[in-house]
Amino acid sequence: MLEVFIFATLNGLVTGLLLFMLASGLTLIFSMMGVLNFAHASFYMLGAYFAYSISLYMGFWMGLIFAPLIVGVLGALVERYGLRRVHKSGHVAELVFTFGLAFLIEESVQFFWGPTTKNYQYPDILDFPLFTLFGQEFSAYRGFMIAISMGIFIGLYRVLTHSRIGIIIQAAITHPHTVSNLGHNVPQIFMGVFGVGTALAALAGVIAGPVLTTFPGMAVVLGSIVFVIVVIGGLGSLAGAFIASLLIGLLQSYAIASDVGMPDLLNLLGLSFERSHPLNDLWTVTLPQIAPILPYLLLVLVLIFRPTGLLGKREE
Amino acid sequence: MKNSKNSLKLNGLLLASLLCLSTVGAAQEPVRIAFMDPLSGAFASIGNSGLKQIQFAADYLFNSKGGILGGRMIEIVPLDNKQSPTETQIQFRRAISEGLQIIFQGNSSAVANTLNSTISRHNRRNPGQEVLQINYSAVDPILTEDNCSFWHFRFDSHAVMKLNILTDFIAMNEDIKSMYIIGQDYSFGHVVSETSIRLLNEKRPDIEIVGNEFHPIGQVKDFTPYVTKIVSSGADAVITGNFGADMVSLARSIIDSGLDIPIYTFYAAFDGITATLGEDGKNRIRLIHNETSNPYLTEERRAFNRAFKAANPDNDVTQPRIINALSMVVAAMEESQSTDPYDVALALEDMRFITMTGDEVWMRASDHQSFQSLHISVHTDEGIEFDADNSGFGLYSEYHVPQEETIVESSCQMRRPRR
After folding, report:
1. CATH says B160-295+374-405 is which class?
2. Given an 8 Å threshold on Cβ–Cβ distance, is A256 in contact with B229?
């Protein structure tokens, strides 16, 4: 039991931290522009595909460096020449723009790389078990994933709270006019944040591609869950996104590891149903079976009991 | 003003040329066959690969040799159902309005079931304009059992037939003492789980089922938590009916965890899967399928593979049953000298067809289920003449079961239309 618990925790940590890399950019972009970027997970997919193509010629490490840079520049261009123009027409137009962009990116990926799964592998140097516990291996690559995402979180947090640029960004979020009156170029800051946000998503894609497989559906699989995290954490809150990411990562992991389900609950209550009962499917459902949809359940609960999210501030 | 006049003229010209074309074409009107499968979205790779195979088979086997029924060409009309039952209904309407009467469909039993009931209803209400469903891959047994229909033909062995053979094969392996079953949470996944448990209990009561897990289809990002459970259960082998991304991710997670046990599957090859598994999956992943893979038995089949590869360097002949299904439909048309679904259906019943590999396919009349030899192949790079995904790895058939031994009873009580 202990081994299952330890590995469930580690797995949850890996998933949670990965989700955070996506959610951090999304939540920053939202707090600045007031728009949920529906194409965010598509930049994550682009990161994985660029890294795959680069790794074919120059190896994994070059992909790790250059793919996020390329995607970051792409993101900045999208903000400068796409979103900023659409911004004049209001939030709905921006929302629709990013929504369309997500489709466009998915179709482009299929067009250029084809619809099949890509053979994107992690480097041989990380292809060994980091440690073996109770006969189970924990791969070095997963350790590497944890290290990278922890590094990103700490770095991002320090930049935002302790550096001059971070203070300007924070100020630009809440008081854009004051900041621009002080002589700062607010649109440029927005463009920069959008670029960094998409680069972070791409970095997540680069390191997730080899383990979660690189295929055109990878953005869709992760896209919705990232929104769930941003909403649960509180829109615009970096710390909230961090807590929500870990919460969801661990929640899913523990749910899968558990072996309880409705039959246990019914036993506890002393109830039983025939197999022929019309709701048989409901009475036999187990926690692992519904684990991937638990975050959405959590979302509903959070929206009912704490609509601002865990650390979000209520908007006036 | 001038513009509109010009376009009017142009329209007139177009119309005239169209009329010309149709009068020329009337004598040799093509035989149009719909191919309805996911051509966009998450499962697009399987659908597109199937489309390339049926188009190539039509051209290579028939059109390049002067067509069928005395010179008529086969035209494959792709219809994208995005593997969704709702979209299938829309595309079915489109097929009707375009006058298509033969529909090939394979991906997802849920879609096949929808199409089956839609076609039955349509055919009942529109006598004389019936539609025929050619199911080349959906393997939920119910389609040729309780929900069997005169208008549905299945050219793949259904899940229970395949599991019958697969469990025989597993039962022979004395090293396997415990089994873990994991699958997608929908009709096919449940059929695989229930049938495997029942058959293993009959054949090897000493094999303990240490896990029986379902996960939502296409929703799981990371299979590692599931694999952690497989490892701690101490299972000696895994059975899964997963396909597409769910199959690759599961296999990768098992491999990455360092767990060295055999994985028995239905769909763990081709369309990027083989390349992704590569060296790590060697001799560990096995598939049950009809039609042999490497070594290919006849020169005819090898020539077909080579020609296909020359025309489609990025694809492989992944589903020979598509080719067999098309060939049998054509044979039925030739035999009845008709493209009317009713005549074709009658001709297909009880047909015995010899495939390019020299294998016999028998279409049972009572439930429209086909029977053909079944094979278990291993993922390897040894003895591979035709690899998958240009990876050097491919499938090597190591266990063969002749057609007679694959035959199972059916509960089908078919309602036959009167004419």
Report:
1. alpha beta
2. yes
